[in-house]
Amino acid sequence: MEWKWYLWFIRMAVMLLVLERCSWCTTDACLEHERIALLHLKPFFNYGNQLQSWVEVKGSDCCKWERVECNTTTRRLIQLSLNSTIWLYNMEYDMDNRNLNAWYLNASMFLPFEELKRLYLSGNAMGGNLENEGFQLLSRLNNLETLDLSWNSLKNSILFHMRNLSSLKTLRLRRNQLKGRLDHIQGLNNLTNLKYLDLSDNNIESISNQGLSNLTNLKKLDLRWNQIESFQSFKDLSDNELKDLVIHQGII
Ligand SMILES: *[C@@H]1O[C@H](CO)[C@@H](O)[C@H](O)[C@H]1NC(C)=O
Ligand SMILES: *[C@@H]1O[C@H](CO)[C@@H](O)[C@H](O)[C@H]1NC(C)=O
Ligand SMILES: *[C@@H]1O[C@H](CO)[C@@H](O)[C@H](O)[C@H]1NC(C)=O
Ligand SMILES: *[C@@H]1O[C@H](CO)[C@@H](O)[C@H](O)[C@H]1NC(C)=O
Ligand SMILES: *[C@@H]1O[C@H](CO)[C@@H](O)[C@H](O)[C@H]1NC(C)=O
Ligand SMILES: *[C@@H]1O[C@H](CO)[C@@H](O)[C@H](O)[C@H]1NC(C)=O
């Protein structure tokens, strides 16, 4: 009798072990190479120790990690919310309002997430990207529809790096260091699927008509809190789909 109980106990223990294991190793978990890619990103976006669920445990389901969202069928990442990981007022600025804490992103680190649709990178004190590892590489993510780069320290050159991201529908560059006359923003003009473009809270003085003439699907262009001198250059945009052109606080 005692033996029977003993065997029963061992059987249960083994079964539990198997079950527990399977919660780590079933097809429900995220893809291993996406999990590893997230761990490579972690040190760059973990200032306030927000990414505690991103653990280096083999088989851990990264779809359950905070700030990550997966497609429930394919178990691949579709959204990554690495926004507001650094808060900008901790930053030091020099006389030219350059952010002394700015750092440079390696955009290649996002390439494993082939099904990514939404990437939020606002509030990270990024000054730009590493040479040869620029944002234009994100054009390989064919499903990428939303890119939020607001509240960083990005300069005009960022617009050039946007030129191949033709799947984008929403691009947010609010509160960066864009400035002056953006007469040659051919980069943006290539984003023919763009519906929403947020350039507010920069120091833009003007944008040439040609610079946005290709954006026939644009529904909303936000230019509040800039130094726009004249509305002339936006006259022809009304021939587009554009419904909302927001300059200053009002809508014209
Ligand atoms: C998830 O992936 C499947 C297969 O590719 C696709 O049909 C579905 O629309 C996706 N769902 C979401 C929410 O992206
Ligand atoms: C990050 O952005 C997403 C999408 O806009 C938002 O829902 C979320 O609250 C943001 N997280 C933080 C910490 O700001
Ligand atoms: C950028 O990231 C990729 C992928 O992780 C890596 O192979 C490459 O060496 C990195 N480049 C630099 C300059 O750090
Ligand atoms: C951008 O597109 C052009 C033309 O299709 C191509 O030659 C170039 O390699 C692309 N750049 C990147 C970084 O994908
Ligand atoms: C408009 O977009 C197309 C690609 O879709 C590009 O070939 C062309 O150069 C763009 N026009 C301008 C003025 O940038
Ligand atoms: C605009 O995009 C098209 C294809 O998506 C590409 O052939 C062209 O080189 C791009 N233009 C610029 C200025 O990068």
UniProtKB/TrEMBL annotation:
One protein family per Pfam: LRR_1
Leucine-rich repeat-containing N-terminal plant-type domain ranges (all copies): 32-71
Signal peptide, first to last residue: 1-25
Record key words, sorted: Leucine-rich repeat, Membrane, Repeat, Signal, Transmembrane, Transmembrane helix
Name used for this protein in its record: Leucine-rich repeat-containing N-terminal plant-type domain-containing protein
Provenance organism: Gossypium darwinii (Darwin's cotton)
